[in-house]
């Protein structure tokens, strides 16, 4: 009797899960398809742009090894003369390899705008020869293909502060669907198990059966990676996901390291035309094998966010962001106040730093990008095959009626 009751309860539970899986799938299927396709399109952004922009990424200055670079402030003025904009330059990316061009960014964000195009009044990148100050090429990143794809993926081109919920909530439901899909997939016995792991179509002619197998088997094999990509995407939509990731991987720490108390104390009179160059020189001496670092040029901007201190972000790898150092300088004297390298960070911090790379597949370079691309396409297929299962069954019921 107990076994029969247990079987009935399991059957009722599976039926409930099946209904929820179906109706949630019909509700968010098209959104999951769209998010998956835009994710797949974005995966190889760096590789494609690297080829398209190769002649500008390298400045090709003759005999540059024996020449002096212009000061950062001089370069800033020269860029503003050649690329006049309503707004000041926001920051500059400085590569450690002296053969590479500097990257000056015009970037402003209006947090009160309701759509992407109004939210970012300007987002441009200028590749600059640091020895001559010549602007080699300017890219309108705001209207560029990959950035529009990214913001479609992120927020459907709505304001990024709340548009991320429009994509985040369906992805949260998708996580439930991945878990419920595994429950529904789970075979009742050994005989059923044989048909769940691979396609056995030798004597199968029905497209409905083949479509059903595609949905189940692809769903099973993609579920692990799909959960990882979904959770790392939800990281950007919901703070509780960020907090959960840090607490879990830091071993229970609930307080993220905060260094906002380290501030500029030197008088403003000490700041000179070459203070930023002094900071840059210090970074280059500390990290001769890094890839590049970013310097904020210190102007006021539309979003008016406060910087508690002058932080310099050092990126160690060309293909990934997860290995980085964070330095704090006195922005008036150029003195180094604090250093936090990868080895100083707990595992929770490292996971937070690695989240973007895991999400786009760049964590281990090209191999993981290929995995991310394939999984994204397979995730896009799940709403399609799921809808076809529902459509086939619905059509059969109508035919019988």
Average pLDDT score? 92
The helix content is 40-55%
Low-confidence stretches: none
Order of helices and strands: HHHHEEHEEHHHHHHEEEEHH
Radius of gyration: 26 Å
- Integer count of domains: 2
Please work out how many helical segments DSSP would assign: 13
| β-strand amount | 5-15%
Helix and strand content put the structural class at: alpha+beta
Number of strands: 8
Shape: elongated
Give the distance, in angstroms, between the N- and C-terminal Cα atoms.
37 Å
Q: Biggest sheet, in brief?
A: 8 strands, antiparallel
Keywords: Membrane, Transmembrane, Transmembrane helix
InterPro entries: PepSY-ass_TM
Pfam families: PepSY_TM
Transmembrane segments: 20-44, 165-186, 218-249, 370-391
Describe this structure in words.
The chain crosses the membrane at residues 20-44, 165-186, 218-249, 370-391. It is built from 13 helices and 8 strands. It is elongated and about 85 Å long. With 401 residues, the protein is an alpha+beta fold. The protein has helices at 2-42, 45-52, 54-57, 72-82, 116-119, 145-155, 160-185, 190-196, 207-234, 239-249, 275-286, 347-360, 366-400, and strands at residues 91-95, 102-108, 122-128, 135-140, 292-296, 310-315, 324-329, 336-340. It has an 8-stranded antiparallel sheet with strand order 4-3-2-1-5-6-7-8. Helix content is 53%, strand content 12%. The model has no long low-confidence stretch (mean pLDDT 92). Helix 6 crosses helix 7 (160-185). It has 2 domains: 2-43 and 160-232 and 364-400; 65-131 and 258-344, no CATH class.
